[in-house]
Amino acid sequence: MRHGFVKVAAATPTVKVADTTFNTEQIIELIHKAAKEEVRVLVFPELCITGYTCGDLFLQNALLTSAKESLVKIIRATKNLNMVVVVGLPVMKLGNLYNVAAVIFEDKLLGIVPKVNVPNYSEFYEARYFGVGNQKVEYVDILDEKHVPFGSNLLFRCMDMQDFVLAAEICEDLWVPIPPSSRHALAGATMIANTSASNETTGKDLYRRDLVRVQSASTMCTYIYASAGEGESTSDVVFSGHNIIAENGTILKEAPRFTNDLTITEVDIQKIVSERRRMSTFCTSSDENYTFVDFTFTDHMHQGLLETSLTRKFDKTPFVPSNKDSCNKRCEEILNIQALGLKKRLMHIGCKHAVLGISGGLDSTLALLVIAKAYDMMGLERSNIIAVTMPCFGTTDRTYNNAVSLTNKLGATLKEIPIKEAVLLHLRDIGHDVNVHDITYENAQARERTQILMNVANQVGGIVIGTGDMSELALGWATFNGDHMSMYGVNSSVPKTLVRYLVDYYAETLEDTDLKDILLDVLDTPVSPELLPPKDGEISQKTEDLVGPYELHDFFMYYVLRFGFTPSKIFRIARIAFSDEYDDSVIYKWLNTFYRRFFSQQFKRNCLPDGPKVGSVAVSPRGDLRMPSDASSVVWLKDLEQIKRDYGIAI
Question: Annotated active-site positions, please?
């Protein structure tokens, strides 16, 4: 289970009401099926050994005795499977009958968790048979199993991966105002198993789905919900086997309703722990009222931590929703956040003029669209927007024409100030050979442009709007005190991959076909600072050839900043996400580049201008990233070296 991944499953067996022999056979069959899939945690429905709909048969000794004997058979069936199994049944304790979840591992009954919230309304009559489960842990004997912990305040802890702590609750426990799982999570549980028998009515699946999703989010845990299905009595209700596996507010896997089988995926315990570590308001504590039951997974072949084969998918663009409707909604939301942030700043300082450098590239295009939107919100004339194009050595006709056309179509004021002569004079003044196209040659242009923008802003009593995006800032791909500097940066928390989607979304909403064509051509233009002379009129300096593909860097940035994953874990999931695009050596090369640049360029991020945060990740030193400029990267580079050895990468 390297990197915190655990393969889990929810299982709905076909049952026959009160036929414990048949039901046990079905349960054991699914256990063995799950074992072949390397499942480590398997959760069954509520009372599945007997069937949930037994009614007054729960008061019959024959059924209860048979259920206990069946439990023993299931316990014996788990030997050498390295699997935690959670299964539902009725159990007697001191003369009272309880609806419980039995937690089993390696031929041993680890503990019994009783249902705390027993429903007795509408179609549910559980209080007729079952007592209310106790939180305090007591000990019981069940046939051959002696001194078994019994109580809802049980936590099952994996000793070879101690962040993996399992707790259980049963059906209705989830539907109450404060579910037991909320307490369990605060006591340290990172995974919740729910044995359930939730019947189906019109629209109930949506509510149930939201309950599981939201509870996994509020408790910052993984949640495995296994529900009863085919075979239960249909006298008054029908069950659909609606199994759901969620992780911190995201549904990872969901069974089609009205089917009985396994629902399998991998959950990421490290991700859960990273999120809790980041959220200071999620305060876990050692609760003396809880009892920990420890168990250990064993790799019988290698005597080490088990490896989890991954089947779950990882989006190539974690900053961008994969669903088009969701993506469009997100884009509209972000454009509004950017525009409202700028609107507040302009209104606060009583400023009517915004100045930006317009290059015909993606970032400055998005910035101009945002400024125009902010001006519309304030009811100001767009002509007060001063878009300055500053052609120099690397400017191509394509980007120049797009910059001019875009500015004119949006109704902003275009100002053209060629900087070639000024840069040549500056290079001559500092004694730099103009034929040496090095960093001095490039940065002289960027700083000259920034100087012009600042001075133009002074002329009109305006402010300079920064155009640089978050991906460039993470990599330090900005000229210090050049394009790095502005008076307000509207794109400062927008990653490059998202910039593309925002511009594309804006284009798709336009009725003006000419403006749409301009935006589409901007999208089709290679990303470039255009600081080196073009070749045959075409852009010669392509950023992604130099620094690496932005889709990779944005992927890396998301998991580094959002969850603090190690390089080896990010490399592992990147191989899955980009398996059809990049081989191991390419992913490794740019991951190495990312870490080296990320650590060495923090000094640029530590003096960033203000700008609005639009998503869960940002690099502002005033908000999300308080990182010293001189932090050592040795620990991360050591892990990168280990990747080379583990995967045999020769670079």
Answer: 46, 115, 171
